[in-house]
Amino acid sequence: MKAAGIKLFRIRGGVHPRANKQATCNKSIEVLPLPELLRIPLQQHIGAPAKPVVYRGDKVLKGQLLANSQGTISAPVHAPTSGRIISIGKYPAPHPSGLPVRTITLKPDFNDRWIELTPSPDPFSMSPDDIAARIAMAGIVGMGGATFPSAVKLGLRKRCTLQTLVINGAECEPYLTCDDRLMQEKADDIIDGICIMLHGLQINRALVAIEKNKPGALVAMSKAAAALPEITIVPVPVRYPMGSEKHLVQTLTGIETPARALTADIGIIVHNVATAQAIQQAIRFGRPLTHRVVTVTGGAICEPRNLLVPIGTPVSVLIDACGGVTEEPARLLVGGPMMGQPLPNTSVPIIKGSGGIVALTAVEAAVKQAMPCIRCASCVSACPCGLLPLEIAAQARSGDLESAVNNGLMDCISCGSCAYVCPAHIPLVQYFNYARGAVTEQQRARHKQQETKRLAAARKERLERQMKAKREALARRKAERAAREPPAECKAGAAT
């Protein structure tokens, strides 16, 4: 089949969960008022956590650097508004473990005063390295949920031969409409951000993939890109997980990204539409990433909305802004129901990768008792990665992690398609996540053991070198002393 002159390819597996987007797909983005406190985690991205450059009691301005990146794979954190730093310490993060992470607590002064910004009216006069550096300084990460530092992706042009930039506007996750609304309301900004990224990557082809169930976004984006032949808007089939990076690339090109490889290795870079808009804001106006659009929805939410939210806003504030809940949610998720993570409580903050807060009723959650596997292989048919979920789950349950890894455990993208179609209601993804965690822990322990052995060997070698040097120095001193002393015959002659 063809779309906008682009031949599309069918991916294996996938499912068709109910979209449930009707509650918010036609609701414009609203600006959330500032909360009383902002809890800003220093670990909002893949890689090393940011290191604070402010102290308790400091007054800061909107956009000011609060914590700087550490190492290549990291991202800085900026103040979403002006105010005062009241603490730097551990606070629960939006993660199912609920474990606390280092967090800066900011009390807004409600003046919302910006720092002096450094805009770039002509981004196309900037070098690719300058663009990547500006994006890195703005703290921009993948806003589709992966939160990988965006500047690092742009830097892949130095080691990979790139031909195409793919912009992911599929938003296949049920309930969420934050990207849909952003494309409808900020299409010109997104297209401008795409042009800036094309210049930064030094390529001249971009494909913007949008699922066909988003007609408003398709119209808005097509209109914004009408005069730009290098940008093609591509309607893609409504099939979960179309938003998965590798599967979207396969749909657009027919090329399957090898296991453990990057799409950049086959010449393609993928960014989310929200990331494109954030890059446009950072380059054109000098604004760091301090806010994001969040869909607050689900049957338990009184008035579902799409909200523009300061990073660090507690989830409870978003729910209150939507009129609270109609009943106690059976499941409260950050992200959607397929790949979202359960929240430990509503005091945790919104971070850069939080695209949605979904509060499901007991009917929507429909948690059922798991039964024994009936070997129907529905999970095999649904898996977009071509894995054998039933075999991997059995090996994970039995503790045979080596076999699970050999069968592709680490290639699983945790999309939840297998669990969605399982008639026995087996929580397959939970097994896989547990097994991956165990494998990672084993690898970490093995690495620690190897590092301990390496350090012990290095210490032994260093001590041996020191002993050898001491022996050689002692031998030299003896030789020098012997050379200074007269021979024994001379001593005897002198005595007579």
Automatic annotation (TrEMBL):
Task: List the PROSITE patterns.
Answer: 4FE4S_FER_1, 4FE4S_FER_2
Q: Name one GO molecular function term.
A: metal ion binding
Domain 4Fe-4S ferredoxin-type stretches: 363-393, 401-432
Transmembrane region positions?
A: none
Return the annotated region ranges for Disordered.
Answer: 466-496
Q: Which GO terms describe its cellular component?
A: membrane
Compositionally biased residues, Basic and acidic residues = 466-488
Keywords noted in UniProt:
4Fe-4S, Electron transport, Iron, Iron-sulfur, Metal-binding, Repeat, Transport
Asked whether the keyword 4Fe-4S is assigned, the reply is yes
Q: Does the keyword ATP-binding apply?
A: no
Query: What InterPro entries does the record point to?
Result: 4Fe4S_Fe-S-bd, 4Fe4S_Fe_S_CS, Ion_transpt_RnfC/RsxC, Nuo51_FMN-bd, Nuo51_FMN-bd_sf, RnfC_N, Soluble_ligand-bd
Q: Extract the PANTHER family matched here.
A: ION-TRANSLOCATING OXIDOREDUCTASE COMPLEX SUBUNIT C
| NCBIfam families linked to this entry | PRK05035.1, rnfC
What's this protein's name?
Electron transport complex protein RnfC
